[in-house]
Amino acid sequence: MRPLFQYLTTAVVMAVSPMALHAACFDTSDLGRGLVVTFEDGNQVFMQRTGTGDVAVRETYNNDDYDTLYTGPYGLYFREEVDVLNGVIQPASRLQIDFSVGDSFPPEPAIGVSWSGPTVNIWTDGNTRDEIYSVKISDKTTYDISGCTYEALIAQVRYEWPNEGGGFGLEYAYLPAIGSAFLLSSAVDDGSIPPNVPASLERMSK
Fold first, then answer.
1. CB 48 within 8 Å of CB 56
2. DSSP characters over 72-93
3. β-bridge mates for residue 95, sequence order
4. For 35-91, how does the pLDDT look when each residue is reduced to its tens digit (9 = 90+)?
5. pLDDT digits (tens, 9 = 90+) for 104-129
6. Which of 182, 156, 184 minimizes the C-alpha distance to 169?
7. Residue 100: beta bridge partners?
8. Which domains does the chain have, with CATH numbers?
């Protein structure tokens, strides 16, 4: 995973126990309470709208005590990251991603969106790194999850570091019905990780 985010408090560290309540299909209003995607391998992604309107996305891994909490618009354009160990945010791991150095911000996810621009990574110790963020959405699919069919826009995201060389690619599924994305796969330039396959979508517990 990439290094990690700021402005988050423990109030945003979302509960890791979904409620098996999915009699109705979910929409954007359900992000207030929060939703959780469980994948076939047992890993989970928790998505919840913050007070600023961004989406906090917590990725949990069934073979790791560390989770990663990302925050940004649409659960896709992340402006901060932070490690979470056994439910507790690790302040030293916080990373801010500053998009303000560019002329524009990535647009709302939609078929045909293609955007690239400079960002700056800012760590808590004051170190910085120039970065290029790119996103392209040119394909879509559907997922039948927990008795509902959701359209998903497939977003190809890439991070590049001009002063260091190399890059990191990720593929996300953005569900317009709920207003958030979740990670499908990621890869550095010389490797890859098998794609996640979503198995269920449920409300988060209180």
1. yes
2. EGGGTS-SEEEEEETTEE-GGG
3. 81, 123
4. 999 999 999 999 999 999 999 999 998 878 899 999 999 999 999 999 999 889 999
5. 899 999 999 999 999 999 999 999 99
6. 156
7. none
8. 10-204 (2.40.360)
